[in-house]
Protein backbone atom coordinates (compact mmCIF):
# COMPACT_ATOMS: atom_id res chain seq x y z
CA UNK A 1 0.00 0.00 0.00
CA UNK A 2 2.83 2.40 0.82
CA UNK A 3 4.44 1.58 -2.52
CA UNK A 4 1.22 2.47 -4.36
CA UNK A 5 0.94 5.80 -2.55
CA UNK A 6 4.54 6.64 -3.36
CA UNK A 7 4.06 5.77 -7.03
CA UNK A 8 0.87 7.84 -7.20
CA UNK A 9 2.58 10.82 -5.60
CA UNK A 10 5.51 10.50 -7.97
CA UNK A 11 3.15 10.38 -10.95
CA UNK A 12 1.45 13.64 -9.90
CA UNK A 13 4.81 15.34 -9.27
CA UNK A 14 6.21 14.46 -12.69
CA UNK A 15 3.19 15.08 -14.90
CA UNK A 16 -0.42 16.06 -14.35
CA UNK A 17 -2.76 13.41 -15.78
CA UNK A 18 -5.12 14.80 -18.44
CA UNK A 19 -8.19 13.23 -16.84
CA UNK A 20 -7.38 14.94 -13.53
CA UNK A 21 -6.86 18.35 -15.14
CA UNK A 22 -10.07 18.00 -17.18
CA UNK A 23 -12.14 17.05 -14.14
CA UNK A 24 -10.73 19.97 -12.12
CA UNK A 25 -11.54 22.40 -14.95
CA UNK A 26 -15.08 21.00 -15.23
CA UNK A 27 -15.66 21.47 -11.50
CA UNK A 28 -14.36 25.06 -11.66
CA UNK A 29 -16.65 25.78 -14.61
CA UNK A 30 -19.68 24.37 -12.76
CA UNK A 31 -18.92 26.50 -9.70
CA UNK A 32 -18.62 29.63 -11.86
CA UNK A 33 -21.92 28.85 -13.61
CA UNK A 34 -23.72 28.39 -10.28
CA UNK A 35 -22.34 31.68 -9.00
CA UNK A 36 -23.43 33.49 -12.14
CA UNK A 37 -26.94 31.98 -11.93
CA UNK A 38 -27.28 33.02 -8.28
CA UNK A 39 -26.21 36.57 -9.09
CA UNK A 40 -28.68 36.76 -11.97
CA UNK A 41 -31.55 35.53 -9.78
CA UNK A 42 -30.61 38.01 -7.04
CA UNK A 43 -30.62 40.88 -9.54
CA UNK A 44 -34.03 39.82 -10.85
CA UNK A 45 -35.49 39.61 -7.34
CA UNK A 46 -34.25 43.06 -6.39
CA UNK A 47 -35.05 44.69 -9.72
CA UNK A 48 -31.42 45.46 -10.52
CA UNK A 49 -30.11 45.33 -14.03
CA UNK A 50 -26.58 44.97 -15.29
CA UNK A 51 -25.63 47.41 -18.07
What brief labels describe this structure?
51 residues; mainly alpha; 2 helices; 0% strand; rod-shaped
Describe the fold and architecture.
This protein has a domain at 18-51. The radius of gyration is 20 Å and the shape is rod-shaped. It is mostly helical. The chain is built from two helices and no strands. Residues 32-51 are annotated as: Disordered. Residues 35-51 have a biased composition (Basic residues).
Secondary structure elements and pairings:
Layout: H1 2-14, H2 18-46
Number of helices: 2
Average pLDDT for all residues: 84
Number of strands: 0
Order of SSEs, N→C? Answer: HH
Structural class: mainly alpha
Largest sheet: none
Query: Which percent band covers the strand fraction?
Result: under 5%
The N- and C-terminal alpha carbons lie at a distance of 57 Å
Region (Disordered): 32-51
Biased composition (Basic residues): 35-51
Question: Summarize this, please?
Answer:
Residues 32-51 are annotated as: Disordered. The chain is mainly α and 51 residues long. The chain has helices spanning 2-14, 18-46.
